[in-house]
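Q: Given only this backbone (291 positions), what sequence would you predict?
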């Protein structure tokens, strides 16, 4: 009888150990969703509905939040926390939306994406520019000229740094370029093979509350600032993200390029959103793996 009890006891212990090992394996497999949930959200911005609503429609567990006149969609994408921000057009709107997003959502990083006009004749509609640099091309000092002296935009070649290191400098003449975050750039390169509608290249994104259609002026920006594209938001977002020390990357798709007669294509807005979501997934996956 004692032998029977002994063997039953041994069998019970073995069964418990086996089940424990199985449960341990299950817990190991479930750590990924747990790590996803622990991450702070990544914010992805688009100025207009054509640059943001496609992304919002892809979120799970989504809620819409409105702060002032700025709309945010909070949810998950592939299990990762994501906030889509419709910044509205222009430098002031996008700066305000960025500051609100940082204060309200405490994001792990910010991607500003959307459509842009080409400055580089080697780029074509549907090509995507990753902002190795983002710069404000609307901040400059004009030459001194008297009444009747005329005005020539091609002489406006002194860039004005609106975020100088020396705030006491009365004339901070310099081109301020905000560098794209290296980890976000790495994620963008991981997503690159999935994008088949055009090239994906590094470049400089130029921003201003201006729509330039003068080819000589565009050529000047391309030569002096090294711009690949122009749009109206990314540099102001970069400036705010920089001051809050939040990782930032600008991603812009060419919707048109008048330097090589590239006609506007409205489908570019959705194409860029899909790519930006892929970049966000790659970035968040790397962050979850590092935890």
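A: Predicted residues:
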């Amino acid at each position: 009888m004692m032998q029977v009890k002994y063997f039953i006891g041994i069998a019970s212990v073995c069964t418990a150990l086996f089940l424990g090992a199985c449960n341990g394996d299950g817990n190991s497999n479930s750590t990924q969703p747990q790590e996803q949930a622990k991450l702070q959200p990544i914010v992805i911005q688009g100025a207009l509905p054509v640059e943001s609503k496609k992304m919002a429609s892809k979120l799970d567990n989504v809620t819409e939040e409105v702060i002032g006149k700025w709309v945010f969609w909070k949810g998950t994408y592939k299990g990762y926390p994501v906030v889509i921000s419709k910044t509205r057009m222009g430098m002031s709107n996008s700066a305000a939306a960025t500051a609100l997003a940082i204060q309200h959502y405490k994001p792990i990083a910010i991607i500003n994406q959307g459509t842009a006009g080409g400055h580089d004749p080697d780029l074509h509609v549907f090509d995507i520019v990753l902002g190795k640099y983002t710069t404000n091309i609307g901040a400059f000092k004009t030459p001194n000229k008297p009444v009747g002296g005329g005005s020539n935009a091609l002489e406006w070649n002194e860039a004005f740094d609106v975020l100088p290191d020396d705030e006491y400098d009365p004339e901070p003449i310099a081109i301020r370029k905000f560098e794209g975050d290296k980890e976000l750039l790495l994620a963008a390169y991981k997503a690159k093979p999935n994008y088949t509608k055009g090239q994906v290249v590094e470049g400089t994104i130029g921003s201003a509350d201006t729509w330039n259609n003068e080819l000589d002026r565009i050529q000047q920006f391309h030569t002096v600032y090294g711009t690949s594209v122009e749009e109206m938001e990314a540099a102001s977002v970069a400036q705010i993200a920089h001051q809050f020390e939040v990782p930032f990357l600008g991603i812009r798709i060419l919707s048109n390029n008048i330097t090589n007669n590239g006609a506007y294509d409205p489908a570019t807005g959705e194409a860029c959103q899909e790519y930006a979501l892929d970049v966000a997934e790659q970035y968040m996956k790397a962050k979850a793996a590092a935890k």
